[in-house]
Specification:
This protein is α+β, with helices and mostly antiparallel strands. It is 33% helix and 9% strand. It has 9 helices and 6 strands. The strands form 3 sheets. The chain has a two-stranded antiparallel ribbon with strand order 1-2. A two-stranded antiparallel sheet has the order 3-4.
C-alpha cells in the first residue's frame, strides 16, 4: 500500500524526522508499523499508529507527550477520604443520585474550593485524614459542604444532628430524646411515651418504677402494649387520636389500610 504525502493536508507541519520515515516507507511501497522512530505499534493511517494519530489530530503534533498533574494526596492511599469527597459531590450535584432530593434539591451545594482538579487536595488540607469509624458531617444540617461547616463525626454525633430529631427543653437545657435517654438511663420509648401522654417538665425524666404505662379506655385499664396488640393498631395512631381529641370509643378503631391494586 502506497501513501501520497501531497494528499496529506497537514504533512507540511510534520517533524522532519517523521517525514523522512514516511517517505522511506512509501519508497518501499508498504507501511506496516508507525513511522515515528522507536514506535513499533501497528500502522493506522497517515503513517501513524492510532496513538500518534490521535495526538496529531488533537494537538497538531504526533510527538506530543501528556504531562500528568501531580497531586499531593493520592486517592489510592486515602481511599476513605476520596470516597467521602466523591459522595458529597454526587449527592449535591448529580440529579440522578437517589440522595439528591434531600441535598442538592434543597439548595445544598459544595464550595468551589473542593471542586476541580485540586479539589481533593484542598479537601484533605481542610479536613485532614478521616479517623477510624468517622464520616463527613455538616455542623449546620441546612448549610453547604465547606471547611467552616464540615467535620469528621462518629455515628452518635451524626444521629444527634439530624433534621428529624425531636428536641425537648427541661430545666433550661435542650437535648434530643436519645441524649436525655443516655443521661437518665431511661429508654427512648419510655421518654417518648411520656411526652405523648402529656407529661411535662421533670416528670418526663422521673425514675422508672418498673411498671408499664397504663391507659384507661371505656372503664378498662391496661398497659399501652395490651391495647396495641389486641386491636392491631400502632402506638402512633393511638397517641394521635388521644392528642387530637378523638372520642374515647374511637381510640381503638382499626386502621383503614389501602388495598393494593391487582
Amino acid at each position: 500500500m502506497c501513501y501520497n504525502i501531497e494528499r496529506m493536508g497537514s504533512a507540511a507541519r510534520l517533524p522532519t524526522l517523521v517525514l523522512n520515515n514516511l517517505m522511506r516507507a512509501e519508497t518501499r511501497g508498504y507501511m506496516r508499523i508507525c513511522s515515528v522512530e522507536g514506535c513499533t505499534n501497528k500502522h493506522s493511517c497517515h503513517g501513524y499508529c492510532q496513538k500518534h494519530v490521535l495526538r496529531w489530530k488533537k494537538h497538531g503534533d504526533p510527538l506530543f507527550e501528556y504531562q500528568r498533574q501531580k497531586y499531593k494526596y493520592s486517592s489510592s492511599v486515602y481511599k476513605a477520604e476520596y470516597f467521602a469527597w466523591k459522595a458529597l459531590q454526587r449527592r449535591c450535584l448529580n440529579s440522578k443520585c437517589d440522595e439528591y432530593k434531600i441535598y442538592g434539591a434543597r439548595g445544598i451545594t459544595v464550595c468551589e474550593r473542593w471542586l476541580g482538579d485540586n479539589g481533593f487536595d484542598n479537601f484533605m488540607e481542610d479536613m485532614g485524614p478521616r479517623p477510624e469509624g468517622y464520616s463527613i458531617d455538616r455542623i449546620d444540617v441546612n448549610g453547604n459542604y465547606c471547611p467552616e461547616n464540615c467535620r469528621w463525626a462518629n455515628v452518635t454525633t451524626q444521629a444527634n444532628n439530624r433534621r428529624t430529631n425531636r428536641y425537648i427543653t427541661i430545666n433550661n437545657r435542650t437535648q434530643t430524646i436519645m441524649e436525655w435517654a443516655r443521661e437518665t438511663g431511661l429508654s427512648w420509648d419510655c421518654i417518648h411515651d411520656r411526652i405523648e401522654m402529656g407529661w411535662s417538665g421533670n416528670k418526663i425524666l422521673s425514675p422508672h418504677n418498673g411498671r408499664q404505662h397504663l391507659l384507661a379506655i371505656l372503664g378498662e385499664t391496661h398497659p399501652i402494649s395490651y391495647w396495641v396488640d389486641k386491636y392491631d393498631i400502632t402506638r402512633n395512631a393511638l397517641y394521635f387520636r388521644i392528642k387530637n381529641g378523638w372520642p374515647e370509643e374511637k381510640w381503638l378503631q382499626p386502621i383503614r389500610r389501602k388495598r393494593k391494586s391487582a
